[in-house]
Hints:
The chain is α+β, with helices and mostly antiparallel strands. Helices cover about 45% and strands about 10% of the residues. It is built from 21 helices and nine strands. It has a five-stranded antiparallel β-sheet. A hairpin with a 4-residue loop joins strand 8 and strand 9. Helix 3 packs across helix 6, helix 4 packs across helix 5 and helix 13 runs antiparallel to helix 16. The chain is globular, with a radius of gyration of 23 Å.
Amino acid sequence: MDLDQDACYRAVSTRDVRFDGRIFGGVKTTGIYCRPICPARTPKRENMIFYPSAAAAQEAGFRPCLRCRPETAPDLGAWRGSSSTVSRALGLIEAGALDNADVETLAGRLGMGERQLRRLFKSHLGASPIAVAQTRRVLLAKQLIHETRLPMSEIALASGFGSVRRFNETFQQLFGRPPSSLRRAQGDVSSGPLGEVTILLRYRPPYDWSAMLDFLRVRAIPGVEVVEASRYIRTIDLDGAQGLVAVEPGETNALKATIRFPKLSSLPAIIARLRRVFDLAVDPDAVGRHLSADPVLAPLIAARPGLRTPGAWDGLELAVRAVLGQQITVVAAINLAGKMVAAYGEPLTRLDPDFPGLTHVFPTAECLAAADIAALGMPRTRGAALSSLAAAVATDPHIFSTRRSLEEAVGQLKCLSGIGEWTAQYIAMRQMREPDAFPAADIGLMRALADEAGVRPTPKELLARAEAWRPWRAYAAQHLWAADAA
């Protein structure tokens, strides 16, 4: 990606918040790279060089600034540039694709060669895939050092470093000092009750938190999820361990996530899932500018400028929700899901007294595949479809992971029992985080675009109109659903 260096310098000189997370400035005289909003005195133009990502600045030999803390910049990596392939690759890296595999394996999952993937990363991010993964580990570790009281050995594990020795070597090489020196004295350092870690998840404003919470509240599965006041809490089952997460508004332009989980090595995966659920990587200004060109969408976006597309914690859970909801109301579907959890979900091995409403984790694919789900009170065909779906997931746990393209993802999902075009698009939107997914046959979308006489567009007509909304049709759908619900 070629940056206009002079324009970047003007953004830094004025501390323009619109560029926060989009560019990073390396200072040649100090060897430090900063965010555009860094409070330090702006260096001279000839002493600065700008990069499109923190990974690019770090790969060029600069180290993160201790004042503006680049690890706290909003993560807009998935929205930078025009390459959907890079966007999907970033999502896979965030989910840990390079923790136990190489770039060639990552490229294969995206349907391309390793050399081509490296070229795309260099063009759009200015850094290699390995550099991006390493930078994510370093910045997460640095955030944990500043924002938690975890011991350094636990931070090394929680941020994805293979060993404490490697963790110490990396920080010594990057900062010229041990990681412990970056933390101010805080007295006793512990991880809190039940392995609790509290961390801030940054986003680019605005953020319509009330709309997000309302969406999750209506769809909360009894025993698994609770929405209270301004907080969302759910149970999680990951890497053979159980725990819970609670998310609520935090400091300026951040959500506060409290994670109680016994395996700290799972923390990067948990954070990646939370960022997906709460759609924290989107640039709402870019989406709003594009969709506001439509006269119908313009007032909806003006009314809800920070509306996000809620993601899903788990692909199987979302697919089951979607299949249960076919031809019945959301409330009825959630009641059925609650019965399923009570019957087949694994009870929490340790109930949390702070959240008595949380009792189970969502059933596993293996359990549902062997269960007589129809006995819970639904048509036999639907119960059989859910069992078949669970069996497919048990056979291929990555069946809901990012695919090479939206079309391929939808095509493969439609091969699963009980999943048609609408359900496939819905799963692609919420689980695979495809910003252009669009369930054109949805009755709510057609109802929201009815004319003054009440005549609704057909799915074919709706698809034709939505062409102008690409590549953010999923956000157009979310605004239309919100308008229809209102």
